[in-house]
Design brief:
heterodimer, A: alpha/beta, two-stranded antiparallel ribbon, 15 helices, globular, B: alpha+beta, Alpha-Beta Plaits, 2 domains, four-stranded antiparallel beta sheet, elongated
């Protein structure tokens, strides 16, 4: 037997007991050749192109799932930022594109389609402004469309006009989807340093330097890491790091295999494996539980940021050894609503928005799936975003904000979406005003890259 | 495997011109498929990677006839058992088989269905996974 008994059982244990799965296989499709001055021709081209490349995406992914016995939680498609395709269009035309994307996504059976996006870190084109203004309607009229807007980067600084605009767009989206706990905001991400090959929604888009079509894979597997750390007990930090690396190596290898095989099945080139450790709301599939297993009492305790930093670093080191096609976000995710341990920490009052912000300085990907009271003002949201993007801009890393100012909800209430989006307790926000700061307008200049203290 | 749309179009045009007046849709399809198969776009390593070797893992409470039921079904499906390793740990039965399904008329999905019914009857778990996943995870 070329494999040891233990090796085979370890793999079975990972997939059957410890929730190891592939979070997503995301097909990135360029829509740049679909631009036309006539909106019906544009939507027709978009529809046909997505159908042509991704028509069998779900079927092929399911076949690979069966062959290797590893489940793939989501099958997704990302497309060229729609603002680039439709720069000459107005809001009504953009909405038609959103509806087309939703329609084709439903027909081919994928879970999400992402790329209703604009990159405005240095300023808006007319089309980008129109697309952004159409986001609240687009997200309330569609089910599967995800939107993202990049408003800051290390090279360009923070476009505070865009931050202020987006805080209003978030409020409007929350209002327009208030019957469903403001779910629109769960499909809208605001970014600093967005990456072009991210397979994870809601922030995925097929960047302009990407090829015609590509297949990116996002792995999961906190349960496997958790079980390894629990079993190992009180070992020292180097040994702990070694243990995490060994586990992540195997997970990444399996992820790359699945990605390559799905790409091969679809007859398209393989892109990247995103070595992010993505939690799910299932018990035992939690990043928070890993931090607790590392020795802190609960998320939010002193030491949380250090534990997370170490985890994140070990994940990356192992992933880079395991695959030569690492890309995307590649870090541990700490979304609140999608992680049972994070939810618990917020419920108990152990985890504040401020501590969460500190944690995002050392991992992927920002304030993710955070629900705040519906009364939170647009200026406060802008302040929260500006803080998060400052972390990304200065540290040359991707940060994002996916925040839900849930209409009609207050601290103690919940938003509940079910599925992978999970449920989130409403977190308290400081009542201090940031209005006079954020409303100055203009841009926060790009930072210096030396003297980095 | 790199098979672009352009390549398929090129094959189709070649096929149509070769077949001339005999170019019925079925004949073209057949010829194009042949051309794809014989084209050298399949890198050697890639082909080796997708071997027909499958790992079957079974465990559960020990009862009589587990090995015989599974191997009978495999032999009926013309699968070749390359290696077998079986242990009883306390009450538990564990078995790992390496199987070659290259010559079987059934694919891995069919075999999984067959094993599912055996697993239900014997109240054990049976997993069938392609070998690559173990190679990728446990071998550098």
């Amino acid at each position: 037997m070329p494999y040891e008994f233990d090796e085979i059982l370890e793999t079975i244990k990972m997939t059957e007991i410890e929730h190891f799965d592939i979070r997503t296989v995301t097909m990135g499709i360029s829509l740049r050749d679909c631009a036309d001055r006539n909106i019906s021709i544009t939507t027709q081209k978009i529809y046909e192109k997505i159908l042509r490349y991704a028509g069998n995406h779900v079927k092929n992914a399911q076949e690979i799932e069966r062959r290797y016995g590893i489940s793939i939680a989501n099958k997704r498609v990302s497309v060229t930022p729609i603002s680039i395709i439709g720069d000459a269009f107005g809001q009504d035309e953009f909405l038609k594109i959103a509806e087309t994307l939703d329609k084709v996504a439903t027909e081919i059976g994928i879970d999400y389609i992402a790329g209703y996006s604009a990159l405005v870190q240095k300023g808006f084109t007319k089309g980008e402004l129109e697309l952004i203004k159409s986001i609240p309607n687009a997200l309330s009229l569609t089910q599967k469309v995800c939107s993202s807007v990049n408003v800051a980067s290390t090279k360009a600084g923070i476009n505070m006009d865009a931050v202020n605009l987006m805080s209003n767009i978030i409020k409007e989206t929350a209002e327009k989807t208030k019957e469903r706990d403001s779910i629109g905001c769960a499909k809208l991400v605001v970014f600093c340093n967005a990456v072009e090959d991210n397979p994870f929604v809601a922030g995925a888009f097929h960047g302009i330097s990407e090829p015609e079509v590509t297949l990116n894979v996002g792995i999961s597997g906190p349960g496997v890491v958790l079980e390894a750390i629990r079993t190992a007990g009180g070992i020292d930090f180097q040994s702990l790091s070694e243990l995490i690396k060994k586990t992540m190596f195997k997970i990444t290898r399996a992820g790359e295999l699945i990605g390559r095989k799905v790409a091969e099945k679809n007859n398209i080139p393989f892109g990247i494996v995103d070595i992010s450790l993505a939690p799910t709301p299932a018990e035992g599939d939690s990043i928070a539980d890993i931090l607790i297993a590392m020795g802190i009492e609960d998320v939010g305790a002193p030491g949380t940021t250090a534990a997370l930093a170490m985890l994140n670093d070990a994940v990356k080191k192992a992933g880079l050894m395991a695959s030569s096609s690492v890309g995307g976000m590649s870090g541990a995710f700490i979304p609140v609503s999608e992680d049972a341990g994070m939810i618990r920490a917020v419920e108990k009052g152990h985890l504040s928005l401020e501590k969460l912000e500190a944690m995002t300085a050392v991992c992927s990907v920002g304030l993710d799936m955070v629900a705040v009271p519906g009364t939170t003002s647009a200026e406060t949201l802008a302040g929260i975003m500006a803080d998060e993007f400052a972390i990304g801009m200065i540290n040359d890393k991707t940060t994002a904000v996916r925040i839900i100012p849930a209409v009609g909800k207050k601290v103690g209430d919940y938003v509940d979406y079910g599925g992978l989006l999970g449920r989130a307790p409403i977190m308290p926000v400081r009542e201090l005003s940031s209005k006079a700061f954020v409303l100055r307008g203009g841009k926060i200049p790009a930072p210096i890259r030396s003297l980095t203290n | 495997m790199k098979l672009t749309e352009d390549k398929i179009r090129e094959f189709s045009i070649q096929a149509i011109s070769e077949l001339g007046p005999n170019a019925s849709p079925d004949a073209v399809k057949k010829l194009v498929e042949e051309k794809i198969r014989s084209s050298n776009d399949f890198p050697e390593g890639e082909m080796n990677l997708s071997s027909g070797r499958v790992i079957l893992t079974s465990f559960g409470l020990n009862t009589t006839g587990i090995v015989s039921s599974i191997s009978a079904a495999l032999s009926e499906a013309q699968c070749d058992i390359l290696d077998i390793s079986q242990k009883i740990m306390q009450e538990f039965f564990t078995m790992i088989m390496m199987i070659d399904i290259t010559n079987s008329p059934k694919d891995i999905k069919d075999l999984q269905e067959i094993m599912k019914s055996i697993a239900e009857r014997l109240k054990v778990k049976i997993y069938l996974q392609h070998e690559d996943v173990f190679r990728f995870m446990h071998r550098i």
